[in-house]
C-alpha cells in the first residue's frame, strides 16, 4: 500500500514586492505525494513551480494553509535524510570534489562508513567516473546537474524534488540522464517530483501537475509513463 509522504492543504505563499505591497505566488494549493509517485510539475516560468517545490521540501513555509509530512517524520529529520533536492541553479559546494559533494549528505547523516562507496557507485551509474576528483568549477553545467542528482540519491531518501534537472542538457543527453534516474528509482518506492519545461520528460511521468498563476491542477496519466 502506498504511503502518504507529503500533504499540502490550502497553501498560499506571498512575498513583499518592494512597494509596501505583496505579490502572491501560490494560491490555495492542495496536493499530496505518495511513495513511488512520478510527478511532472509543469507550467510557464513564474507560475510558482519552484516555490511549491521549496514548500513541499520544507525549505520555505507557506504564508497560509498547512503542510505536513506524515510519511517522513518530524520536520528536523526531512533533510538530508528523507528528502533529496536538485536545484535549478548550481548548488554544488565549490571546495568539494564531485565525489565529496555526492557523499556529503551521508556524512551529515552520520553514515560515514558507506559514503565513499556509495559516491563511487553513483558516479559509475551516471557515467561520471572520470569526474570524481574534479571541482565544480571544472564541470560543465550539465555535468554539475548530474552530480547534483547523484548527491540527492546518495542517502536513499523517500522523496526527490528536482527543479529543471535537464535544463542544461541537450535533448538526447536529457533522455539518457532520465533513463538512468528512472532505472535507479525502479522498485525503490522513492517518489520523484520534477519541475520541467521539457515535454519529453513530463510525458514519461505518471502524473502531471500544472501550475498557472499560482494555482495547481492535477492530472493522472494512463499512458506515457515509463
Automatic annotation (TrEMBL):
Residues 6-225 form the ABC transporter domain. Keywords: ATP-binding, Nucleotide-binding. InterPro entries: AAA+_ATPase, ABC_transporter-like_ATP-bd, ABC_transporter-like_CS, ABC_transpr_LolD-like, P-loop_NTPase. Signal peptide: none annotated. SUPFAM superfamilies: P-loop containing nucleoside triphosphate hydrolases. It comes from the Bacteria. One of its GO terms (cellular component) is plasma membrane. GO terms for molecular function: ATP binding; ATP hydrolysis activity; transmembrane transporter activity. It holds the Pfam family ABC_tran. Belongs to the ABC transporter superfamily. This is ABC transporter ATP-binding protein. It comes from Mesorhizobium hungaricum.
Amino acid at each position: 500500500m502506498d504511503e502518504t509522504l507529503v500533504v499540502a492543504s490550502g497553501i498560499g505563499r506571498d512575498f513583499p514586492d518592494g512597494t509596501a505591497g505583496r505579490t502572491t505566488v501560490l494560491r490555495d494549493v492542495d496536493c499530496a505525494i505518495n511513495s513511488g509517485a512520478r510527478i511532472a510539475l509543469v507550467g510557464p516560468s513564474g507560475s510558482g513551480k519552484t516555490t511549491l517545490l521549496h514548500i513541499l521540501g520544507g525549505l520555505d513555509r507557506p504564508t497560509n494553509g498547512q503542510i505536513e509530512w506524515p510519511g517522513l517524520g518530524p520536520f528536523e529529520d526531512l533533510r538530508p535524510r528523507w528528502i533529496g533536492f536538485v536545484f535549478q541553479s548550481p548548488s554544488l559546494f565549490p571546495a568539494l570534489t564531485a565525489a565529496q559533494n555526492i557523499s556529503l549528505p551521508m556524512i551529515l547523516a552520520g553514515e560515514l562508513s558507506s559514503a565513499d562507496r556509495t559516491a563511487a557507485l553513483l558516479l559509475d551509474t551516471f557515467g561520471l567516473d572520470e569526474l570524481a576528483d574534479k571541482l565544480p568549477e571544472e564541470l560543465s553545467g550539465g555535468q554539475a546537474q548530474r552530480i547534483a542528482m547523484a548527491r540527492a540519491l546518495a542517502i536513499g531518501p523517500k522523496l526527490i524534488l528536482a527543479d529543471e534537472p535537464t535544463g542544461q542538457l541537450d535533448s538526447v543527453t536529457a533522455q539518457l540522464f532520465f533513463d538512468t534516474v528512472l532505472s535507479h528509482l525502479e522498485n525503490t518506492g522513492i517518489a520523484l517530483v520534477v519541475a520541467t519545461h521539457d515535454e519529453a520528460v513530463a510525458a514519461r511521468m505518471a502524473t502531471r501537475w500544472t501550475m498557472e498563476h499560482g494555482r495547481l491542477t492535477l492530472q493522472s496519466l494512463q499512458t506515457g509513463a515509463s
